[in-house]
Please model this.
Amino acid sequence: MNGCTRKRLLIIPFFLRNRGCRHRCVFCNERIIAGNAPPVTEDFMRQTVSACLAGRGGRYDRREIAFYGGSFTGMPRDEMQDLLDMASALIAQGAVHSIRVSTRPDDIDEARIRILASKGVSAVEIGAQSMDDGVLRKSERGHTTEDVRRAVRLCRDRGLETGLHLMAGLPGESRLSFEASVAETIRIAPDTVRIHPVIVFRDTQLARLYEQGEYRPLSLEDAVTWCKTALARLTRARIAVIRLGLQATEEMEREGSILAGPWHPAFRSLVESELFRDMALELLEKSGADSSGNVFHVAPADLSSFNGPGGRNRALLQSRLGGRPVAARPDPAVPRGALQLRDGRNEYGTSIAEAAARV
Model:
């Protein structure tokens, strides 16, 4: 069982694979993305929640059931109601606190929002993918950017937490248009964002375009650069990026499932490592790279990002210091996403949010 957590929130996901979807987007192979998801029955939901809580439920302040995959509010009304009733019963028992759903922006209206709000739904994640109408058309999304804006307004008016899903490297998308989508997302101001670069899965229209030479995916290096900029700017805007990259499934790991694209099972780590590298170089420049006694201070949870994959960041910093070892201390007093450099007399600091002005 896979879970996605942020701070003290435990999300217990159930995948509904393509349920409610009226469109087949060019990039979509839900069987690979969601893995071998079983039907969501009352017994399965109860057993899954119980197993999750027995393993780690006590570590979290809030626990949520999440319905992912497909378009939740696009399903037949009775099917949507049945799933909400199952989850609401677990709220009544105190097993979980609330429900979150993912859906298409054009499947949200006042009537559906009223149903969600009455059944314990606290968060709606909206599959925008892009805020560029031309990119949406080429991806055959079947909705517009105005649908996204309207959906966010409707959810916010009901007091629901809103999240947007964005993708990087869609057909017809440039770095400039992706950054414009990020800027528009900041203007709309959802509570959360998920971003992942486009992966070319087998048995999709995108796979055919790729094989015919009509689509070229981002390189891993470019995907990290694009998403590094997005993460910094969204963080500066106080919008939580709750996921970067796709969560690995057994189907993804099978040979032939992924034809091309910037797939990496620890994509967020790559993005954050690049940001910490840039931040560390900036602080060395401020302090004087040849100064002796430099010690970096970083939140314990960010130490691996500071070090970089295989210690790559440390090696680069050591070369900038003329071969002297790089001293880095995990420091609980340093906030997540921040970095400090102390040389015995002075202290220099920066953060991912401050990096937004430079990426």
The radius of gyration is 22 Å. The longest strand covers residues 121-129. Confidence is low (pLDDT under 50) at residues 1-7. Residues 272-358 form a domain with the hypothetical protein PF0899 fold fold (CATH 3.30.2320.30).
